[in-house]
Amino acid sequence: MSRFSAVVLFLSFGIVVQLTHGIEVNVMQNGELCLYANLMLNFSVSYQVDETQFQTVTFSLPDDAISDESKCEETSSTLKLKFGDGHFWSVNFTLNENSYQADVITFSYNLNDLNTFPNSASNEILTVTQKPQMSEIDLNTCYFCKSQDVVQAGETTMTLWDVLIQAFITKGTPSQDMTLCAADSSTTTTTTTTATTTTTLATTTNATTTTTTTAPPVTNTTTTTAPPTTNTTTTAPPVTNTTTTTAPPVTNTTTTTAPPVTNTTTTAPPATNTTTTAPPTTTSPTPTLPPPSTGKYNLTTPNNTVCLLASFALRISYTQDGKKEELNLDPSVTKASGLCGESSSELELVSDQMTLTMAFTNDTKKFRLNSLNVTLKTSSGVFADGNANLSLWEAAIGSSYMCNREQNFNITSLLSLHTSNLQVQPFGVKKDSFSTAEECQGDAESFLVPIAVGVALLILIVVVVVAYFIGRRRNMATGYESF
């Protein structure tokens, strides 16, 4: 990406290209602006309407999107926009020394919203994730991309353009320096003369405010609003003609009288071969991680009622640059946040090295872990991966799921989850405590084994006692016959 001043012009055929304002979001922390965003966003979603047919709808991010769950932290920030009946779109940023980047885009949509998804055959809430192209953004600069950026994830296509975002704003003032996306760098010519245009990002005192100039959302159509096209004119350099004249060849003749030839024989000294043995190479073994500690987490409603409970020890295994690594979640430095809903709940755990987002859904009878996204800060950079089509930790609504033994789950080909001492209840929490637990198969079997052993011992004792009395009675009968 290239970096330039906000007062620099973009010229295409001599025309100044200005930013088209879309939805504008100001995220505040302690009364100061900490994250700014201005972007255009369209969605295209394919969904099932019956057993054999699918339908596609296209709609824009509406003007009433709510950003109250956006947040800024020391090393991670989240822009989250909620809209419609249970939909949200978010992008998570992480800080890395002198730059920051967008790690993962998340789009969650409710197929039970028949206004947006007419004739939907499903009432599920689906969540898709994808890693965006916003990387290596210089700290204290805005990320700017006028070109179209198409992000595909699952059955959805997200199209962004006219994107202007700055995370980790210092002292509440957005920067006028920008980091340009690669697409704009390859199609845009900059100049530092002629006219000047300045973009001013105003600071507001509200906790989070959202304004927009986009048109209302269009539903049930297959027309996507196309971003403006930037044309570029390249002037070819002048052509210089050169004439070369070839001079006639010059012939020089030299006559040399050769001296007499003398033959001389020299005996070379004997060769000596020396072999040096390299010292053996010692490979240090990869240190084994200690068992992870068990952490307890909860979410509360605005009236301080607990709505989600979770307790577990957790380890992540991941493969980066062909090397498999492991990382424990440290409860002592982990903060819990998220949301509780009737049909979906989300738990986000953030530590100094790990961001873990769990999405739970229910079908009014049972709940399950539906989506898991992981972002790690590693020695090799940032690792981000996830799966939005899971069905783990299933239990009936009004109960909790519990599994004390170690469980191993392959989330993707590069990501695995290892848990122990696990108990979760994302819905129907009463009196701030776990309800009756539905245990995993391994735990249930661990209780059956001692019961089965005890029953077998009891039967054996009864058999021995009965045999003893039968044998004694026979002995007594034999004694009477001898008399």
Number of helices: 2
CATH topology of the largest domain, which one? Porin
**Radius of gyration from CA coordinates:** 35 Å
Spans where pLDDT lies below 50 across 5 or more residues:
2-17, 188-285
CATH class of the largest domain: Mainly Beta
Describe the structure.
Residues 26-168, 292-430 form the Lysosome-associated membrane glycoprotein 2-like luminal domain. It comes from Oryzias melastigma. This protein has 483 residues and is mostly beta strands. It has two domains: 2-211, Porin (Beta Barrel); 294-441, Porin. Helix content is 10%, strand content 43%. It is built from two helices and 31 strands. Strands 1, 4, 5, 6, 13, 14, 15, 16 and 18 form a nine-stranded mixed β-sheet that branches. The longest helix has 42 residues, at 441-482. It is elongated and about 110 Å long. Residues 2-17 and 188-285 have low confidence and may be disordered.
